[in-house]
Amino acid sequence: MQPSAPDLETRLREGLPLLFALVLVTIDLTPRPAPAGGGIAPFLTLGAVYFWGVYRPDLMSNAAVFAIGLVYDVLSGLPLGCSSVALLLGRAVMVARHRFFYAKSFVVIWALFVVWAPAVELVRYAFTAASLGVLVDPLPLVAQCGLTIALYPALSWVLVRLHEQVRTRAYAEP
Known about the structure:
It is a single chain. The protein has a single domain, classed as Arp2/3 complex 21 kDa subunit ARPC3 (Orthogonal Bundle), CATH 1.10.1760. It is built from seven helices and no strands. The chain has helices at residues 5-28, 44-55, 62-76, 82-96, 98-101, 106-132, 139-166. Helix 1 (5-28) packs parallel to helix 3 and helix 2 runs parallel beside helix 4 (82-96). The longest helix is centred in the C-terminal third of the chain and has 28 residues, at 139-166. The protein is globular and about 50 Å long. The relative contact order is 0.15. The model is unreliable at 169-174 (pLDDT under 50).
């Protein structure tokens, strides 16, 4: 039986968060020129997982987050699973506290991101260091996390517009 056009449209709209997160993975990993080489890039993918965990956790499932992390690890050369585990643990915190975030101002949401993002990055760093068996300089990670936090308002603005496109009648706010 063929799905009806409205059903297909709903499914496509619900797939937009995953698709956009995968686009962010490619943006995150795009080489950036820097005077000394090795330009620092934000981890915008982290912001997308946070956003959907706050506003629509149903559209960013554990499987989707795992896949996003795995794609990130494969494309970046990190040990497989490090980003997936960190993002999944971060998502678990978001889902467990989902009702807390309901109807909070953007300033509160951003302030919580300022706490949440470094925690997830620390988990990712720990898993990567353990997988490689070596400690690497954490300074680039700190710079990356700071840049991610600073760019979250702009990313959030884009994601709010995307959220308007994926709204469905079936989803009921808590």
